[in-house]
Every structure is written in C-alpha cells, then in structure tokens.
Amino acid sequence: MLAALLSTLVLALSAQAATLKLQSPKLVVTDSMGTQLRSDSFSLSKQVAEAVELGAKDILKMTFQVLDQETGNGVQPHQTFLRFYDEKTNEEGIQPVRVTPGGKAKFELNLSKPPLSLPPTPNGDPLKVSLIIGTSQYDPISVELFDLVLPKSQPAPENPLESTFHVLPEIHHTFRADNKMPPQPISFAFIGIVLAPWAILLSLWSQVVPKPSRLFSPSILPFVASLGAFEGLLFWYWVDLKLGQVLLYGFMLSLPTFFAGKTALASIGSQRLGRK
Amino acid sequence: MFPLKKLIILAVGLFGLTSAKSSTGNSVLVVVEAAQKDDFSIFFDGMRDQGYELTFRGPKEEAPLLIEYDEPKFAHVIVLASDTKNFAKDITPQSLISLTHLKTNLILGLSTKQTPLTSLASEFGLIPPPPGTPLISYFPKREEPSTLIPITPKVQDSAVLQSRNNHPIWFSGSPHALGNNPLLVPILRAPVESFASEVDGGSPDAIVDSADKGGEGFWAGSQLGVVTGFQTLDGARVTWVGGVDVFSDEYIQKQSSKRRGVQSGNRQFAHDVVAWTFQESLVLRIDKVEHHRVNTTEPRDQYTIKDQLEFNAYISKFNPKNRKWEPFSALKDLQLEFTMLDPHIRTSLPAVSGTPGKYSANFRAPDRHGVFKFVVDYKRKGWTALHSSTTVAVVPPRHDGYPRFLSAAWPYYAGAISTSVGFFLFSAFWLAGEVRESWKRPGKASKIE
C-alpha cells in the first residue's frame, strides 16, 4: 500500500517536472552541390511563416539542442521524432532524430536518398512537419514547425482489391449506330415508279372496256371470292399471322376454292362450248 | 402522460437491450486463464446482459472443443489468454482459420509476448513489432506510466465505433502496423505521438538505429492500429486486440487522472467491439433481387438486345435491438453491373423513395448477345459484403422481332400488293368476262382448220 502510494507520489512529482527548451534551432536548405539556398531559425512558440520548399536533390538540415529549461543542461529525450503529415491523404511518416547525450540533435533529409518513412506526395500538397519530444520527467512537447513542400512523388502502393471497396467508375455501353433510312420522298418516288404500270393498264383498259358481266353469277362469284380470300389471307399473314396459322387457314380455304374453281371453270367451259 | 410514455419507451428499450443478440447466434466460448477470469467480470456481465451465453475454457483445457464433427460448437470465440504460448491441441492458428471459414466470429488478444497468435496476426495483414515492445506515449502529461495510454477515438476514422464516445479508452499492450489488405477494418488507432519501444524506456539511439534499418524496423504514429478488425471473404469477423486489458475491470472503472469522476470509454468501446465482431452492427443482407423489362412485372430467362431492363434489389439491415431484419434504404453508393466476363454496364443502384429497402436501376441491355449476369457486389470497410449474381441470356431479336414497315421498304410493299391486286383483277375479269363473237370466231376458225 505504502509502495503504491510512494509510486504515485513519484509519478505525481515526475508529472510536475521541469520543461524542456530548444537551443539555437536552425534549418538550412542546400542543393546537391552544397550551396546554401535558405537558412532560417524555428522555434517552439511560432510556426515558420514561409513553407520550406525542397527540389528533387536538395538537402534539408535541422539542428537544435534540447536543454533543461531551468538548469540549462543538455537532455537526451527518449522520443525525439519529426512527423511529416499530409492532411489531405492522411498519410503520415515519422522519422526519429538522433540526439546526443548532451542534447545536440542533427537531422538531415536528403531528397536524393529519401527515407522510407517519408509519406508519398502524389499531389504535391505540403506536409506538416511537427516535432515530438517525449521523455519521462519532462513535459512532452508536440509542436508544428513548418510546412514542407516536396516534389511530386508516386502515390502509395495500393492493394489491387482496394478499388472494389470504393465507388467504381460508371460504365456505359456504346451502342452501334442504327441503320440509316433513305429519305421518305425517295421512297414515295419509287412507289410512284412501281405503281406506274397501273396507269398504262388502266388507260389501255379504258380503250377495251372489259365488262365482268358474269361476276355475280353463282358459279363464278364463289371462286373469285375465294381467290380474294387467299390474297387477303396472305396480306393478313404479312401484317399479323404466324406461319402455322396461315397453313391452317389456307388449308381450310383451299377445299372450297378447289370446288368453287372446278364449278367456275366448268361453267366457263360449258358456256363457251354451249353457246355455239 | 409524458413521463409515462417516456417510461414505456425506456422499458421497451431496456427489454430490447437485454434480449439483444447477434444475427448469427449467441453462444460464446471464452478462452481465458482461470486466474484472470475475474479481471474481466464487467465485460462478461455486459455480454450476458446482451443475451450471450458464455462458456469458459482454460487455454490448456481439452474441452469443450472449438469444432466437433466439422461443425463449429460456438457462434463466437474470444481468446483473452494473450500471454499463453501453449494452447490445447485443438486451439491452433489453423483451427482458428477453419473457424472463420465456418463463419465463426473471433476476438483474439495479442500481447507483447510472442505467441502462436502473433504469427497468425501477420497472416491477417497485421505487422506486429518485435516481442517485448509495448506501445509507449508520453502524451498527454499524466500520472499513469507511459505504457498506459488514454486513446480518444477519432469518430470519423471508424464506422465500428458508432456510439459517440469521447471518453478516452485506456490501452496498454502491443500496437501493430497495418498492411494494405482492404479487408482490414481499423477500429482503434494508436495516438499520433505514440511509438513501440522496449520496456523500461529502451535507449533513444536504439530507436534511431531501428528506423535507419528501414522496412518495418520502427513502429510509431497514428498509422498504427491497436484494435483492428478483419472481415473475411466468407463474412466472418475477426478482431485483433493489441492488449486484452482494454476489456479489464480495472480499465473500465479507471477514471481519468486529470478529470476525476469521468469514466473511461472502455465499457462502451468493449460493447462496440463485441457488437461489430459478433455481427450485431453493420450487418446487411440482400433479401431478394428482381429483374424484368420496363413496364412489365414478369422476370424472363432471356432478354433481347437493346431491351429496356429494370433491376430491383431489396436490402435489409439487422437491428440488434429487436433482433429483426429491417428494410434499409440508407446505402448511397450501391452499384449494379451487367457483366459478360467484363462489366458491360455499371450503373448506380439508388434507393427508391417510398419503398423502404428497395433499390432500383433502369438500363438498356447492350447490343451484344451472350450470357450476362446482374451483379451487385457491395464491399465497404466494416459493413457486411453484399454479393448477388443473377444469370440471364441476352439474345438477338427473333425473326419476327425486327422493326417492320420501314419507309425504305415501301416500294417493295407497293410492288407486292400491286401484283396481288393485279392477279385478282385479272382473274375476276377473265372468269367473269363476256365471250365476244369477234374474239371467238378467229379462234374457232383456227381450231377448225
């Protein structure tokens, strides 16, 4: 019980413990030849206003020293991390920084050899760089330092099945174009040509004036009617009927037609011979 | 009147709560060391209140078996014995995998020790850190040791933790990095400032060295999971818990060191994890699908190319409160595919307002004939995967199915009809015509000659 009490007391003391500060924090951007492109200081209290931009082969160097706020002695924290975070893709990379027992820290980001922990930047969005320092007996520090703009990179590798867990792009079928029709006036013109012989026939008939005088005689009319019925049946077939129906109706029609035809032809024969 | 009404609602709600069960069964096997059983009494009581029947078994006890005569004995299995290295003969990674094939849901505990489950976890796409490296965080400043971490879940991160739970969840145990397997459902992620490190601090240099090695040498940050779900292709759910203490009485009753009196979020968290893993929440099913031509109601075995088709799906969601499947219209991103080898058409399948649970799409069959399938394949993290496939044939038009009376054919129709009319007129005139003398004589004369 006492031990537990003591331990909580120790913990409580440690939780109240001193704060850390950074001494001479500095960031330097150089190109691959070693020419200094930018040199800036950063602090825990204020974010660097201007985003740090790195080219494909540039080097970012950061140096600082971790000191005890009160004693001024160097401290080697258990956890000294730089966090690179892309807010849009929610990708995060964490890179530990080596700190000497005297508290001196040096971090180098060489983009010609980027560390694996650096998150991919496929859209070129700025990464938020924050410093995380945590160690027992001191207040932890987590501060956003600056925005880092990196050259565009390949997107993070994705599982081939990942896309099936999201809305897939719609697919529309491309239909073949409909058959083209000739313009209707042309069709009408050809109907005219097809029906033109009727004009000739009718004009010639008007000279001859044939008279179907026996049309209504009981021996002729049934045959003419049944021939008409056949024509009508075929027209009906074209418009509506199926083949089976046509064969059935045609068979039913053929018997009366046969006998009507026999009667009609016999009557014509007898008329032609009997007239004499 | 009003309080009475409220009371009734409350009573009904309570009744619903007590009789709540999973959609797949309520028998649960808990594998736990007998000595630790009492550490989880609140968790177990909570599950009993939910309507689950718990059976306990020590990790080295021989009975009851997980699978008997190829049939799973329990609908759900919880392995809380996360430190145990040697299990009874029938609790092996292989048998746990076969359980998932038999649609048994699992909650499996991991710890900082190397156990058979650790190697099984890597088969599920989790990448555990080396043994003996628990999750550590110095944030926020607190009295508790750095290995006991309050985690506030980000609600937008996980669909599983549905109940608004802003109380921190106390966690201690081992984190795991997540592979890119889409079947993984992160439930609780590690805090941004946390990292895995050896017990008793470990040296700062060792952390840098392991990170320099690259690959999976370094576990840190919010990309790590501490409790992660996995939904198998068979529909079973498996939840990996980085430290089973998250369910313990101690953590459930623990109060925040900063704000006295604020209960931890562990009880609600345990409830949510059980509800998801044991198929209570986010459970969907397709009741039936229909297909027919637009403006008809009868389904057909085959459709003609370019037919206008209508496809309907009826979807229900399991309601654990009353243990009923209820029509569910809230899916916004359902899609329908019309597939012959590849999808020829993929279109959204929106909910029909007015008919709960009905989703309907309307499209024109492609002008390719063959054997097509209506496919609904809905997979979203955390939700039951919905799959439905209906085969139909799409055929070219029959001989009399083509368009008719086209203007291009009018001259032909006119020709045929005019021939028919001509034949009929000729027959009529010939049969009914007069026999004229002037015609007859020469004929007769020639005949006589």
UniProtKB/TrEMBL annotation, chain A:
<keyword id="KW-1133">Transmembrane helix</keyword>
<dbReference type="GO" id="GO:0008250">
    <property type="term" value="C:oligosaccharyltransferase complex"/>
</dbReference>
<feature type="domain" description="Ribophorin II C-terminal">
    <location>
        <begin position="175"/>
        <end position="272"/>
    </location>
</feature>
<dbReference type="InterPro" id="IPR056790">
    <property type="entry name" value="Ribophorin_II_C"/>
</dbReference>
<feature type="transmembrane region" description="Helical">
    <location>
        <begin position="186"/>
        <end position="208"/>
    </location>
</feature>
<keyword id="KW-0472">Membrane</keyword>
<comment type="similarity">
    <text>Belongs to the SWP1 family.</text>
</comment>
<feature type="transmembrane region" description="Helical">
    <location>
        <begin position="245"/>
        <end position="268"/>
    </location>
</feature>
<dbReference type="InterPro" id="IPR055374">
    <property type="entry name" value="Ribophorin_II_3rd"/>
</dbReference>
<dbReference type="Pfam" id="PF23860">
    <property type="entry name" value="Ribophorin_II_3rd"/>
</dbReference>
<keyword id="KW-0812">Transmembrane</keyword>
<dbReference type="Pfam" id="PF25147">
    <property type="entry name" value="Ribophorin_II_C"/>
</dbReference>
<feature type="domain" description="Ribophorin II third">
    <location>
        <begin position="27"/>
        <end position="135"/>
    </location>
</feature>
<keyword id="KW-0732">Signal</keyword>
<dbReference type="GO" id="GO:0006487">
    <property type="term" value="P:protein N-linked glycosylation"/>
</dbReference>
<feature type="signal peptide">
    <location>
        <begin position="1"/>
        <end position="17"/>
    </location>
</feature>
<protein>
    <recommendedName>
        <fullName>Ribophorin II</fullName>
    </recommendedName>
</protein>
<comment type="function">
    <text>Subunit of the oligosaccharyl transferase (OST) complex that catalyzes the initial transfer of a defined glycan (Glc(3)Man(9)GlcNAc(2) in eukaryotes) from the lipid carrier dolichol-pyrophosphate to an asparagine residue within an Asn-X-Ser/Thr consensus motif in nascent polypeptide chains, the first step in protein N-glycosylation. N-glycosylation occurs cotranslationally and the complex associates with the Sec61 complex at the channel-forming translocon complex that mediates protein translocation across the endoplasmic reticulum (ER). All subunits are required for a maximal enzyme activity.</text>
</comment>
<keyword id="KW-0808">Transferase</keyword>
<dbReference type="InterPro" id="IPR008814">
    <property type="entry name" value="Swp1"/>
</dbReference>
<feature type="transmembrane region" description="Helical">
    <location>
        <begin position="220"/>
        <end position="239"/>
    </location>
</feature>
<comment type="pathway">
    <text>Protein modification; protein glycosylation.</text>
</comment>
Automatic annotation (TrEMBL), chain B:
<dbReference type="InterPro" id="IPR005013">
    <property type="entry name" value="DDOST_48_kDa_subunit"/>
</dbReference>
<protein>
    <recommendedName>
        <fullName>Dolichyl-diphosphooligosaccharide--protein glycosyltransferase subunit WBP1</fullName>
    </recommendedName>
</protein>
<keyword id="KW-1133">Transmembrane helix</keyword>
<feature type="transmembrane region" description="Helical">
    <location>
        <begin position="410"/>
        <end position="432"/>
    </location>
</feature>
<keyword id="KW-0732">Signal</keyword>
<dbReference type="InterPro" id="IPR055457">
    <property type="entry name" value="OST48_N"/>
</dbReference>
<dbReference type="Pfam" id="PF03345">
    <property type="entry name" value="OST48_N"/>
</dbReference>
<comment type="pathway">
    <text>Protein modification; protein glycosylation.</text>
</comment>
<dbReference type="GO" id="GO:0016740">
    <property type="term" value="F:transferase activity"/>
</dbReference>
<comment type="subunit">
    <text>Component of the oligosaccharyltransferase (OST) complex.</text>
</comment>
<comment type="similarity">
    <text>Belongs to the DDOST 48 kDa subunit family.</text>
</comment>
<dbReference type="InterPro" id="IPR055459">
    <property type="entry name" value="OST48_MD"/>
</dbReference>
<keyword id="KW-0808">Transferase</keyword>
<keyword id="KW-0472">Membrane</keyword>
<keyword id="KW-0256">Endoplasmic reticulum</keyword>
<feature type="domain" description="OST48 N-terminal">
    <location>
        <begin position="28"/>
        <end position="277"/>
    </location>
</feature>
<feature type="domain" description="OST48 middle">
    <location>
        <begin position="291"/>
        <end position="432"/>
    </location>
</feature>
<dbReference type="GO" id="GO:0008250">
    <property type="term" value="C:oligosaccharyltransferase complex"/>
</dbReference>
<dbReference type="Pfam" id="PF23358">
    <property type="entry name" value="OST48_MD"/>
</dbReference>
<dbReference type="GO" id="GO:0018279">
    <property type="term" value="P:protein N-linked glycosylation via asparagine"/>
</dbReference>
<comment type="function">
    <text>Subunit of the oligosaccharyl transferase (OST) complex that catalyzes the initial transfer of a defined glycan (Glc(3)Man(9)GlcNAc(2) in eukaryotes) from the lipid carrier dolichol-pyrophosphate to an asparagine residue within an Asn-X-Ser/Thr consensus motif in nascent polypeptide chains, the first step in protein N-glycosylation. N-glycosylation occurs cotranslationally and the complex associates with the Sec61 complex at the channel-forming translocon complex that mediates protein translocation across the endoplasmic reticulum (ER).</text>
</comment>
<keyword id="KW-0812">Transmembrane</keyword>
